[in-house]
Amino acid sequence: MRTVARHWADFQYEIYLNGMAGAVPRLPTDLTRLEELAEQRLGPGPVGYVAGSAGSGSTARANRSALERRRIVPRVLRDVHERDLSVEVLGRALPAPLALAPVGVLSIMHPDAECAAARAAAGQGVPFVLSSASSTPMEQVAEAMGDAERWFQLYWPRDPEVARSFLNRAEAAGFGVLVVTLDTPLLAWRPRDLDQAYLPFLHGVGTANYFSDPAFRAGLAKPVHEDPNAAVTHFVGMFADPSKTWPDLAFLREHWDGPIVLKGVLHPDDARRAVEAGMDGVVVSNHGGRQVAGSVAAADALPGVVEAVGDRLTVLFDSGVRTGDDIFKALALGARAVLVGRPYVYGLGLDGRPGVEHVIRCLLAELDLTLALSGHATPGTIGPADLTEGPG
Ligand SMILES: Cc1cc2nc3c(=O)[nH]c(=O)nc-3n(C[C@H](O)[C@H](O)[C@H](O)COP(=O)(O)O)c2cc1C
Ligand SMILES: CCCCCCCCCCC(=O)C(=O)O
Prior knowledge:
There is one protein chain. The chain is α/β, with parallel strands linked by helices. The protein has 16 helices and 12 strands. The strands form 3 sheets. Strands 4-11-10-9-8-7-6-5 form an 8-stranded parallel β-sheet. Strands 1-12 form a two-stranded antiparallel sheet. It is globular and about 70 Å long. The structure holds flavin mononucleotide (FMN) and the ligand CCCCCCCCCCC(=O)C(=O)O. Flavin mononucleotide binds at residues 49-50, 101-104, 131, 133, 153, 181, 263, 285, 287-288, 290, 318-321, 340-342, 345. The ligand CCCCCCCCCCC(=O)C(=O)O binds next to loops.
């Protein structure tokens, strides 16, 4: 089930060769600079929505420092001439341990929105996880991707008919993995959005899967175009259900045949409950610091979850990944693969599909070089011994 190894580090040579012809990259190769550029070039509402997080931003900052605090201890004189970043995740052969995280309402960043990001992911062979809250109906995104690997992220609607309909549509449209986000039963206190009174969903943006859904529409007195405000109100009441508990997962197991991954798991006991509920994986994530202000950093939670269930579930990771060495560290802490969020969204906002491609290629070229320069030829040999903590 292995993919053909791609030579990610060739991107480095491509950049230098283009330089000989007088061309430099359109976007920075240090992806931590994208946020600042986006702040300068994109509108305050959209960029505030993407860059913003819960409360004073302490969780988002903690995500970064938990990754930065951990330092790689490189090994030398190991043969790293031939390298292969490919990994198997949930029965799928991926070219690298990376997927694009589900991010809602991408049309606020670029008119080509989810289709542009999905095409970029497909072109690089990286799975695209489509948000329930996308600006484009799932069938249209699927069509843009051909037969490339795609996963569907579920915000579990309160109405079981709508939930069932979403699952049926996603399956029919070729989404192979269901990612159920559990950390957003309510929208958190997000000062950047509150201060601007900015929430695109209330204008019917990011509601495409709902407004195109027959079960959702059946709950409306009038068609969406005749009474859009009523449709938005119905969406707000439908979007999530804070009364859900662990036994409710049986509903999803019953209606989804493929792998199911729970996103937003941080406690080892919750990971154990995911095993008991027959789930296939978890994403150790705090939603990029956008939900619980003062939450544990995702990278600090990762080792505990891996220790509890790493032999029984596929453990994925996100929240704070900005560089190739961040990916290396997450793998060393036991993640099978990582999801990248904001960087690809800034890439999209700044340069559309090529911007997203740039982000994927930079991350994987840097990962490949970090791997090699640390003494590894494949992700499979990376482990906790490759990291140290503290001022070292
Ligand atoms: C603008 C924005 C929208 C998001 N929308 C969703 C979503 O619809 N569903 C979801 O599960 N996670 C969503 N997330 C969270 C991401 O999937 C991911 O957990 C997070 O971005 C990772 O943190 P990072 O951006 O710091 O890498 C969103 C994140 C951002 C920044
Ligand atoms: C008043 C609540 C309206 C609906 C909220 C939509 C939820 C946000 C979906 C995107 C997301 O996950 C994010 O982090 O932002």
